[in-house]
Amino acid sequence: MIVYIDIIFLVNVAIDGALLWATARTRKLDYRLWRMALSSAIGGLYVVLLFFPGLSFLYTFGVKLLLSLLMLLTAFGFGGCSIFCAMWVLFML
């Protein structure tokens, strides 16, 4: 079976971008497009790295949790613990 990594990357970037945009709109957050694009690219890179057998630790829950936190920090910054936790919960839904 042929797997096109570039297509998987772009589809994942689009989905991550949509999720981040929905999180920002729902929480009425100010956002910068370049930060959301960078955050989406981080998520896309993660999916590409999942295809390498030597990086099987990326499948663990802890890595996925840290990645989602990194994506939110990249897109929106910290802004306080309660705000960040609310953003994280909304992003994970």
Structural account:
The chain is mainly α. 72% of the residues lie in helices and 0% in strands. It is built from 4 helices and no strands. The protein has helices at residues 5-26, 33-49, 61-76, 81-92. The model has no long low-confidence stretch (mean pLDDT 90).
Keywords:
mainly alpha, 93 residues, 4 helices
> What shape does the CA trace take?
globular
Helical content class: over 70%
Task: Kindly report the average pLDDT value.
Answer: 90
Listing every helix as H and every strand as E from the N terminus to the C terminus, the arrangement reads HHHH
Q: How many DSSP E strands?
A: 0
Provide the β-strand percentage band.
Answer: under 5%
| Structural class computed from helices and strand pairing | mainly alpha
Radius of gyration: 14 Å
Major beta sheet summary: none
Question: Quick summary of this structure?
Answer:
By secondary structure, this protein is mainly α. It is 72% helix and 0% strand.
